[in-house]
Design a protein that fits this description.
This protein has 370 residues and is of the alpha/beta class. The protein has 2 domains: 6-212 and 346-369, Rossmann fold (3-Layer(aba) Sandwich), CATH 3.40.50.150; 224-314, no CATH class. It contains 12 helices and 13 strands. The strands form 3 sheets. A 7-stranded mixed beta sheet has the order 3-2-1-4-5-7-6, sandwiched between helices. It is globular and about 65 Å long. The protein starts with 5 loop residues before the first strand and ends with a helix. 44% of the residues are buried.
Amino acid sequence: MSIRPTAYEFFAGGGLAGLGMAGLDTIFANDMDAAKARAFVANHPGTPFRQVDVWGLTVEDLPGRPDLAWASSPCQDVSLAGARGGLEAGRSGAFWGFWRLMQGLEAEGRGPRVVVLENVIGLLTSGQGRDFAAVCTAMAEAGYAVGALEMDAAHWLPQSRPRLFVAAVKGEAPRADGPSAPFHSARLIAAHARLPEAVKAAWAWWSLPQPPRRNLDLAAVLEPDAAVAWLDDPEAILALAAPLHQARIAAALGSGQRTVGAAYRRVRIEHGRKVQRLEIRFDGLAGCLRTPAGGSSRQYVVVCDQGRVRVRRLTGREAARLMGVSNAYRLPASESAALKLMGDAVAVPVVRALTEGLLLPALAGRRAAA
């Protein structure tokens, strides 16, 4: 029997949360998506896995007594880029399918000491704040101390990717007297202020060490220029750039240095009508990875060098590196499937920082208390 803490990983996708939870053993995982299930099994062959909707699981399907339950529940209905249907909508309502399992485990004396919900920042304001309050209320009523952290992958990786982590803990865990940067943002503080008083009474401002200075930039994770396919007609896509972004390209060309940027096509309202625009950044970061079928198109790589601009699409392997995944990770053969897998995932170093700074300390001494 393992002497290490054990974990369940719900809505596991390709298993990136498990990669970040170093020091814990995942004893059960699930996801309903067939392509993600194949990726999980290929990369975690020893982990028990069920390809099933969470509503199709029962407590009897769950082995042992987990120390921690992780849920990266679907975010489309609470994303700022989506329709904001909230947790009452079908996909994000999957959280309640997960939560009924936690309640069932508790009834059998097998409830986890720690529960983590990972989601988009939009959860703080979806449903006019009611969704976030509902999640926190459920956890507080189950006897957990509950708190949340906003963690941006940009602290560890060259990708702008803020995500919300709601952590519920029974027992002691590192906490602060009040909110502190960078993990307690103004929008998180505002969401806390809207919570019911009973939830505020159970609230904890979880404390994490300050992240180290990031020493990786976008150029470092890209394939060599000769190994990738470039667009034959970059001017067609560059022409979509608004004046501000045209100026950024001109400045990069004028620097005389090789400058690497990332870009997305987005629909903007200009003079009362929808216009497609190319928006470019040259700050060493990629934009937040999204699924190919999401609210934004596939991300572009833009290189200004020797007086010319070249443009290509980001590859699936590069997307994986932007999520902190090693080259040994087995990606789907399809570029679209690989990009979808990574666009829906959680960044590995972010989970590792949360695990080392909060989750493992919260689980210290669990065997003696069990």
